Amino acid sequence: MANHERLHKLNNVVPQWFTPEHPYLSEPLSEQRLLELADNERDFLLLHGGCFRSMDSAHDDQVRFASFFMFPSLFPRKAFDKARHVQPVMNKLYARVAADREFLTDTLKATIEVDDFTASLFRIYAEVSQQKNRQCVSLAVMRSDYFYDTHCSDIRQVEVNTIAVSFAALARTINQCHRYVLGQLGCEDKMDRIPENESLQGIAEGMLCAYDHYGVPGSALLFVVEDRCANLCDQRFHEFAVCRLRPGVRVLRRSHTQLITSARLDHLNQLFVDDVQVAVIYYRTGYTPRDYPTQAHWDVRLLLERSSSIKCPSIQLHLAGTKKVQQVLTRPGVLERFLDSPEEVSQCRSVFANLYSLDMTSDGDAAVQMALRSPERFVLKPQREGGGNNVYGREVASVLSQVGEDAGRCGFVLMDRLWPLVQRNYLLRPPSLGQVEENGGHRQTPFPVDSVTELGIFGYVLCNGSQIMENKCCGFTLRSKPEDVQEGGIAAGLGAMDSPFLV
Ligand code: ADP
Ligand code: MG
Fold it and tell me: Is there a contact between 197 and 476 (Cβ–Cβ < 8 Å)?
């Protein structure tokens, strides 16, 4: 669909900016007012930790505000409620997938023959699942991502993340900031249209639930982090939220590199890091090949997996979060294997987009032909996380014509392209250090962009194998990006924090 058609379609769903029908902005703001609000919001984020570490600085004490949209984006309330409502079912689904060895093995069989990274994770899984007396309880902190798709006028799931889900803390901060700006715009009566976000508290409660289940006084929560991390504020706020709820609980932050020399198992497979016993291992890294630069890094992941600590996520839940699993779950009859009722099955299915296997089968061949005929209708996804890996539009055809006949195509899945709502909003990005010098430190100015928003719903589930012990939906995040940007990594500066104004 051409952009003007999409905008037209959008106009029928939610009112455009600066029109009398807009729910909170009925007239254009003067430039002076806009700049004043931008300064206020930027400082709000800086002073409430809505920031990233400045990775171009050699010093660890420098942060910059996270890119953000100045005003909350309009999001259909019905769709928002639906996404929240389905989250406990999604939690259960992924917990049960992770517990089903036969399903995971069959599903990933062709993928691991061509994808080394997934194969390395799978080897750890295979080894650990042979182990006697292994820890069967695991914690899943998940985020299910959605677009409001204009082609079907409903939400469609982009993906489910099962490891290192981020932005629960930044989402809360931008949420508070947007409530503040709504007040400044004289719309305090509309505050309830920005739903309160309990994401951070919910996730912290999930971690403590796992901690209590482990039940060893004096033991610690281990945050496994990158050697030097950009998303510092988001991670640290998780830690502080745990410590606020339970001040006595010790939290250790260690990178894989540090754990190579400081982690050990005792004869009962209890994990000790610098002689402190670890109750729960919470990964904020470990999901890209970059996180395993040497064999010793892989060895330490295996060591952690072998331990009796409760993992968030377990290696099997990590594997359950692959795009390949997402694709197989859309096949007829598969959800029925994991869920408890036809209602749960239809709830889940109603948010799925179409995904297609590219395995070396006749179905795979047909999917390749379909994508070659109209590549603009599809997205090609490898088994990677963290953004920047997918292939769109004409490139889908060129990649598929290269690997179309080759088993390498089993490393990808094909997905229908989604067409999210487009709306205009003001984006503010932090200056890079270079720009600061050039401009003599002048403030950045906000600029209007046609943007699309992606809703993420958080949830956690504590389970013992396929048995669900605790299952909660906890809050949301909204990330938006200019509509012509295909992938909006916030850390990469393309996407930006946002929050929903429900309409
Ligand atoms: P990753 O695990 O790298 O985050 P995603 O599947 O979430 O992979 O894709 C990254 C981004 O690409 C999404 O945030 C979204 O902006 C865009 N994207 C993913 N799938 C689609 C799709 N089917 N249609 C349109 N855009 C998509
Ligand atoms: Mg994603």
Answer: yes
Does residue 439 have a pLDDT over 90? no
Among 153, 386, 387, 393, the one annotated catalytic: 386
Determine the distance separating the centroid of ligand 2 and the alpha carbon of 166, expressed in angstroms. 10
Average pLDDT over residues 425-453: 74
pTM above 0.70, yes or no: yes
Q: Which of 84, 91, 351, 49 is closest to 196 using CA atoms?
A: 84
Question: How many whole angstroms separate alpha carbon 279 and alpha carbon 281?
Answer: 7
pLDDT exceeds cutoff 50 at 9: no
> What is the rounded distance in angstroms from the CA atom of residue 195 to the CA atom of residue 253?
32
Report the C-alpha gap between 171 and 169 in whole angstroms: 5
DSSP 23: S
> Is 239 marked active-site?
no
Ligand 2 centroid, distance to 382 Cα (angstroms):
12
How many whole angstroms separate alpha carbon 482 and alpha carbon 91? 30
Backbone φ, ψ for residue 175 (5° rounding)? -60, -45
Residue tagged active-site, from 143, 179, 306, 324? 143
Chain length of the chain: 503
How much is the mean pLDDT over the chain?
Answer: 92
Which pLDDT score is estimated for 380? Answer: 95
Residue nearest to atom 8 of ligand 1 (CA): 387
Pocket of ligand 1 (CB under 6 A): 145, 158-159, 353, 379, 381, 385-387, 389-390, 415, 417-418, 454, 487-488
Buried b (16+ CB within 10 A) or exposed e, 466-487: eebeebbbbbbbbbbbbbeebe
Contact 483, 452 (CB under 8 A): yes
Contact 464, 439 (CB under 8 A): no
CA 147/CA 67 separation, integer angstroms: 20
Q: Is the peptide bond before 313 cis (omega within 30 degrees of 0)?
A: yes
Tell me how far apart the alpha carbons of residues 118 and 322 are, in angstroms, rounded to a whole number.
9
Closest-CA residue to 391 (of 408, 405, 378) = 378
How many helices (H) and strands (E) would you count in the chain?
A: 17, 21
